[in-house]
From TrEMBL:
Species whose genome carries this gene: Helianthus annuus (Common sunflower)
Source taxon at top rank: Eukaryota
SUPFAM superfamilies xref list: F-box domain, RNI-like
UniProt name for this protein: Putative F-box domain-containing protein
InterPro entries assigned to the protein according to its UniProt record, in alphabetical order: AUF1-like, F-box-like_dom_sf, LRR_dom_sf
């Protein structure tokens, strides 16, 4: 393997579904250890809380050694924990283009300031996906570069989506999947082209989206 071109070695590493495996690859191959800092995408998946503690340390170590990080995807129980995010997000915030964080359902039923942290740090972020979290919008900063936002199985402390409308001015894609905490929400985005709304609880939804091309609304109800 040490004789393979660096471009091919980097391609091998980039195809790993879980970046936690990169640590093993670095030990197994000197060549892979040499090229891994050039990775631009890192993914971490773990369903076990016990394992997630050690994997978070591995993740922080890996991401601190990467030269440029453009995409991060984390799916583990403490993914939206603000203290965890503070350990690694500032290191990659300037180059980050895509970010996906999914924790345990509503993250222990306590609000998280991770969305505010992202808005303060990631000025070039274009795509954001947050799942299974209770999101505070306190001190949320404008994110003019963000064009795609997906929230799934979240609680949002923004009943009418006023803060979202104010801070995410240039959204083109918006997916709200089973979002709680809303009351008579209003989606007001002049550049929005695609919107997916999936809910069983809202009786009222206002759309001010003059450039909307695709609208998908899914409602479901429980039957006895």
């Amino acid at each position: 393997m040490d004789e393979l071109p660096e471009s091919l070695l980097l391609e091998i590493l980039s195809r790993l579904d879980n970046s936690a495996d990169i640590a093993s690859c670095r030990v197994a191959s000197k060549a892979l250890n040499t090229v891994f800092p050039d990775l631009r995408t890192i993914n971490l998946y773990c369903s076990s809380r016990k394992s997630s503690i050690s994997l978070k340390k591995v993740f922080v170590d890996l991401i601190s050694k990467l030269r440029i990080v453009e995409s991060v995807c984390i799916c583990l129980q403490d993914a939206v924990d603000e203290d965890f995010a503070k350990e690694w997000l500032p290191r990659v915030s300037q180059s980050l283009n895509s970010l996906s964080l999914s924790g345990s359902l509503y993250q222990g039923l306590r609000p998280s300031n991770v969305l505010t942290l992202v808005s303060v740090s990631c000025h070039n972020l274009a795509e954001l996906n947050l799942g299974s979290a209770w999101l505070s919008v306190r001190n949320l900063n404008p994110m003019p570069m963000l064009t795609s936002l997906t929230l799934s199985y979240t609680i949002v402390q923004d009943q009418h989506l006023n803060q979202f409308n104010k801070c995410f001015l240039n959204l083109q894609v918006l997916n709200l999947i089973c979002v709680r905490g809303l009351k008579d929400p209003k989606i007001h985005h002049l550049n929005l082209q695609t919107c997916h709304w999936y809910d069983n609880n809202q009786l009222s939804l206002t759309l001010i989206t003059p450039n909307l091309i695709t609208l998908r609304i899914d409602c479901f109800c429980y039957t006895a």
